[in-house]
Specification:
Shape: globular
Helix content: 25-40%
Number of domains: 2
Largest sheet: 5 strands, mixed
Number of strands: 13
CATH topology of the largest domain: D-Maltodextrin-Binding Protein, domain 2
Radius of gyration: 23 Å
Strand content: 15-25%
Order of helices and strands: HEEEEHEHEHEEEHEHEHEHEHH
Number of helices: 10
């Protein structure tokens, strides 16, 4: 009887210890909203897994902060509404920090910054100016900084077609339904221009980084007033920049420093 009691007690102590260990190993979940349609920054591979630079950065930040990332796919124009509705806790989806968006959400400081550029068919001879673009049709992803820019700067000159995804705009460019597409230069360079479909296209005109439209770089959006999470992520961004984790992720996708100046 005594031996049985001691055995039960030992099992209970063991179970209790295992429970404590399991609780200690459980990490808080950070629900991350992302688009999954913006390679190489975020995309869904053939196995249905979300991947890309944004995803690797978010995972590194979660690891640095003692959290575990749970990625939730959301169409681009539903990301901020989804964050506000608490569908997720943060947006890591190549979202630029702009004054307009700051009215709805708070941002960390940037984790990368790249310019916007136009692409057109090779040899098209298009000059990027109001006169040079007169009557041209330009494709752009809807509800982006690039759409704001093209409408504000060239809206009285060009015909603008806005698309749910950049891939849709690129397909219409290849099909001849557009004269140009404007988007992030890195996305166009590492994605579209390196594909068989993009081989007959090239950059035209300069890169654009004007803060009025393109903000302060790309940051992580959190709900208004969620300063604890914002500060935790800022600290983690600084840490992975300092310990080399950021540079390893950068080298996986790019042969240049995507962080910018």
């Amino acid at each position: 009887m005594k031996r049985w009691t001691m055995t039960v007690a030992a099992i209970m102590v063991g179970a209790c210890w295992m429970g404590i260990a399991s609780a200690a190993e459980t990490k808080p979940i950070l629900r991350v909203g992302t688009e999954g349609a913006y390679p190489p920054f975020n995309y869904v591979d053939k196995d249905g897994k979300v991947k890309g630079f944004d995803i690797d950065i978010a995972s590194a930040l979660c690891k640095e902060s003692g959290m575990k990332c749970q990625f939730i796919l959301q169409d681009w124009d539903g990301l901020i509404p989804g964050l506000i509705a608490r569908k997720f806790d943060a947006i890591v989806a190549s979202m630029s920090i702009t004054d307009e968006r700051k009215q709805k959400v708070d941002f960390t400081h940037k984790y990368y910054q790249t310019p916007a550029r136009f692409v057109a068919k090779k040899g098209a001879g298009i000059v990027i100016s109001k006169e040079g673009l007169k009557g041209k049709t330009v494709g752009v992803q809807r509800a982006t900084i690039h759409e704001n820019f093209i409408r504000d700067v060239f809206g009285d000159t060009v015909n603008i077609k806005a698309y749910a995804t950049l891939d849709e705009a690129n397909m219409d460019l290849v099909a001849g339904r557009l004269d140009l597409v404007i988007a992030d230069a890195t996305v166009l360079q590492t994605g579209f221009l390196k594909t068989p479909a993009g081989k007959d296209f090239e950059f035209v005109g300069p890169g654009y980084t004007d803060k009025k439209w393109f903000g302060e770089g790309v940051g992580i959006a959190v709900r208004k007033g969620d300063n604890a999470l914002r500060q935790k992520l800022n600290k983690a961004i600084d840490a992975i920049r300092a310990n080399g984790a950021y540079q390893k992720i950068n080298a996986k996708y790019f042969n240049f420093d995507v962080y910018g100046k």
